[in-house]
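Priority: low. Protein: Sugar ABC transporter permease. Input follows.
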Amino acid sequence: MATQHSRSAARIMMAPAVILLLGWMLIPLTMTLVFSFKKYLPMRGGDLGWVGFENYVRFVTSSAFWPAVGTTLVIVGGVLVITVVFGVLLAMLLDQPMWGQGIVRLLVIAPFFVMPTVSALVWKNMFMDPVNGLLAHLWKFFGAQPVEWLSDASMTSIIMIVSWQWLPFATLILLTAIQSLDSEQLEAAEMDGAKPLSRFGYIILPHLARAITIVVLIQTIFLLSIFAEIFVTTQGSFGTRTLTYLIFQRVLESQNVGLGSAGGVYAIILANIVAIFLMRIVGKNLDA
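Result:
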């Protein structure tokens, strides 16, 4: 049992790392808050003084603000549905004994380690190009007209690209959860005459509930700040401008760091609202 002296020594040893971590988080956040109340134009005069809540009002009353929030939530929701559904199916498939199982698992997980910019470039040029892309040749093979993916189906394209990146993560977490399932339960249900769908609905899916909520929580936190894929492919056109990309555009177009900082605060608020909502769901599942 730890003594008071050992606990104090542990706190002292952890203190430098905790202080560094807090500084890493709090200093940028504090600077963002300070700049959000200023008119700061680095290319046109620098710091022009305090403007109060003017930046917040300008940003939230912009005609592009709420569509950007809606686009962000649609992309997050679409990616979550695809990664969870196909993640469960892939995890169940990879759990089955097969030849070269380790290699297959490695190939399935590999896309998660590809940088978002590289992934977006690959999809844009190799798959979705309406002239030389793989999907264009596939459409022509069946006698159909190639699709202008990034203009005619822009939201679908973004969701596909991001889902391809995050599907391995969901699959890995869900595969680990499936492997922890007691096989005797499935064998007993099978001996009792339970059909595959019944076994999935009453045994496998409830067992995966915690893993699914963890996947949803972690992915949502990262997906709310999606930027690279949109910058490389559509550059916010055709209804794909997310809140993060809107902040980038506002700073780039107006060269107003204060306005962008106010947008960053709104992004933090949105992320916290979603995170609190998801944490309640995770908490319920973990207590179940």
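The chain has 14 helices and two strands. The mean pLDDT is 81.
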